[in-house]
């Protein structure tokens, strides 16, 4: 009894999120000393503002990876959606809200194409989204002839990426908060979330348990596509232009954040708050190094090193606890 | 045996090969159609110089794709090869700049790649970490480390003997093609006829069964990653000698290009299935798209979209077939 309680307490302490929170706290401590104006309210909100796009992609990447899949196409889709939005608004002469709605539709449709290939033809998600990674970026390049750049968006649209509520809160933050809460509820408080995990853990088992496996997987990819479109528009509003190369490499940043947040790349295990912590860890690292006058490359190097350290640490801990369990079993017998 | 029966045996054998190599044959057919169209619409594509340029551009990709095929057959993946490629290119340039003879430069690039591959292999085989995450991390780390180190600076003022190995352009091109052909030939033979090659298939098909059969899956995985790195080093060298200086940004996106060629060539991402002949056809098909667009006077900015569509069509055709098969 006593040892059990002791062990479970250790387990909570050693949970991934706790570990990551510790890393985040250490980061903040260091940067408070080294960075100029790091520990200010303004900077905290600035970090938040610049991590919204990656954050959105990482949030919806979580259910995808939970089902044992992966979506490499989100960065390219962000570029395609940015270009489509510009095309609708400038060349088709639509009002921007209409263009925004259509762009969301295109994102969902693109996610649907991924979902269709993955569920109907039972193709591996890695390959399907690798193909659409090329296809979506290629379409964006084709539509813009590789050079076209959409600028001069109306001020009331740009306000979504550059404005502040009450002069303090960046305009995109409430949008991010709404999506974060929605995805958290979806994954942790509904049967959908349960089924994502079940599918990631054992797809055949989930099928025999009566779950609509195909529809659940499709939901994850369509959601990923639609939110990539949303991230695209926030990106366009923030930087004020839409080019074909928007969001290059974002898919890898999003995946890094999700994996760093404790979601298993094999599916079945993971949390949305872990992902948010992962996004925060990466964003604080980047911002803190910048304010400490360190080269921006260091952020990339440390991101890779952090990812490897955390994973290796987890693997070592798992080996250690497995050995202890074996020893305990031996002692009992 | 009657003649009729003989005939039917022959055709059934032909269908069997057709079924077994459906992907390789269908991709080869696509390539043949593309070449045929080009032969009529743009015969200039087959000009000696143009053909040599297309092939020498594809040769480094083929070398890397051979390594990637082994990695994927052993049920792993390596997305760090673009960064390895850049590091090895710069390394080769710096070694040549310091006045070392070309054979030493070549060995240096290959050894450098092998060390980078061994790093991946140690983490993946030794600690059992998922290869996609490990190589994602090393991809970012190496790329940023290189950017920090070189600050985007080209390696310039290379000695005469660097570009085209100091010979004429055509002899240099011949050397590149010979190198790629040699690597391809040796690996294609080894994968089919040598025990080491079969080990890779065994580990990729069923790791546990391979272990019980007396193989050491960890050793095989480690070896495959070291070989992948060494091949990337060679590919980087053969790519670098085509130019007068070394661009530190070279190889960006190479991993996706190579994985795409391997997958189009029929290597199953689930491991244990595929062969190098398919990879050769896949590399050639994807390599022909960009010059074909130019020669058919189509807008070249659609290249990536067409490549993506080819990848999706190739895998979708497979999926469709197995669906009907079920």
How would you describe the overall organization of this protein?
The complex is a heterodimer of chains A (333) and B (326). Chain A is an all-alpha fold and 333 residues long. In chain A, strands 1-2 form a two-stranded antiparallel ribbon. In chain A, helix 4 packs across helix 13 and helix 4 runs antiparallel to helix 14. Chain A is globular. Chain B is mainly alpha-helical and 326 residues long. Chain B has a domain of 206 residues. In chain B, helix 2 runs parallel beside helix 12, helix 4 runs antiparallel to helix 5 and helix 11 packs parallel to helix 13. The longest helix of chain B is centred in the N-terminal third of the chain and has 26 residues. The radius of gyration of chain B is 21 Å and the shape is globular. Chains A and B meet through helix 7, helix 13 and helix 15 of A and helix 6, helix 11 and helix 13 of B.
Brief overview:
Chain A has helices spanning 2-13, 16-34, 41-50, 52-66, 74-91, 96-120, 125-143, 155-162, 172-189, 191-201, 203-208, 213-239, 250-260, 272-291, 296-332; strands spanning 164-165, 169-170.
Name some characteristics of this structure.
heterodimer; A: 333 residues; mainly alpha; ABC transporter involved in vitamin B12 uptake, BtuC; two-stranded antiparallel ribbon; 15 helices; 1% strand; globular; B: 326 residues
Walk me through the topology.
The complex is a heterodimer of chains A (333) and B (326).
Chain A: H1 2-13, H2 16-34, H3 41-50, H4 52-66, H5 74-91, H6 96-120, H7 125-143, H8 155-162, E1 164-165, E2 169-170, H9 172-189, H10 191-201, H11 203-208, H12 213-239, H13 250-260, H14 272-291, H15 296-332
Chain B: H1 3-20, H2 22-41, H3 48-73, H4 81-97, H5 102-127, H6 131-150, H7 169-193, H8 195-205, H9 207-212, H10 217-240, H11 254-264, H12 276-295, H13 303-325
